[in-house]
Fold this protein.
Amino acid sequence: MAKNSRLRWWEIVFLILGSPIWLSVLISVFAVVFSVYVSLWSAIISLWAVFVSLLASAFGLTAASFILLVLGRMFSGAAAFAVGLVCAGLSIFMFFVCKAATKGIIFLTKKVCLALKNCLIKKEVA
Amino acid sequence: MKTSTKIWLIVAAALVFLGTIMFSATLFFADWDFSKISTTKYEQNSYNISDSFENIWIDTDTADIKFLLSGNGECKVECFEEKKARHEVKIENGTLFINEKEEKAWYDYINIGFGTPKITVYLPKADFSSVYIKESTGDISFSKLSVKDIDLSLSTGDILLSDVKCENLVTKGSTGEVELKKVIASNKFDIKRSTGDIELNVCDAAEIFIETDTGDVEGSLLSPKTFATKTSTGEIHVPQTNEGGLCQITTSTGDIEIYLGEK
């Protein structure tokens, strides 16, 4: 037979009277967890932004190098092409870093969600 | 690790290696002169000023500004400036105006640049009514001048003044540092910075108002002051004097360290 989960009247009274304490603690705990989570995602977004910047720089510098070479500015053109190559290489490295970091944060999210679910919803005893 | 990942990583390493070698080779052939790979073209222009003036008004962006005494009573403005951002130099109503005239298209802002524009003003005398300078990242330095009102407004540029006498010194800025050496104001210093440090060496003013966010304030004053200091988390070390003019220093996290006399 399943356990009666209904609260007694004095439990309800205690919950209501104690709400200024437990509710504020609960809100602050959620706020901390949420802020940590948002911070982690901010870091991920920043990493992807670096990747996009490197990729854009690679394309931009390579295009600019051809224009500079056509204009007869050999040193500037060659330097722009060289830095474009470096940016392209770094963008490939950055892509793998971003991918791994994103996978990691998704894995962490799943774990945290499962842990919270287990905390809040208890399995009924058969 | 997947084979495709390995290939991509090898390609990336090769690109970085090749780019580095190419860049080094380019600099080698350019005799390690970074200005040769710069896409921004600079030129040196000189403007001779024959009329007299009492005020100096400069509005520019990135140029470092320096005032020097000419020594021969003549006035000259030398500008090391971008071809597409020349400065206009003129005298109007007893004021020397120097302002940047940009003729840049949007694509001119995308460039490889290593040079720094410079404005050097050779002054015929050392006394002026006012100096007003507004700029962004350039530095300002001058010495051995006597100016009634000094107003310097800039963002990340540094200010270095030495042996300067004035009535009022007002300066606002963001991250640039302010270094004053033997600067005496008969009325007030009003210095505001965000993260830039402020250093006063053997300076004085009837009243001093300094405000920073994270920047430190330190140095030495010549006369006792009534100190009104305030900081959130910074440390405060000021003389325990309650005479003389007001010296109000406010910071958020910056430290305050002031001595009397020469440090």
Q: What stands out?
A: Chain A touches chain B through 22 residues (CB under 8 Å). Chain A has a mean pLDDT of 88. The first helix of chain A runs from residue 9 to 17.
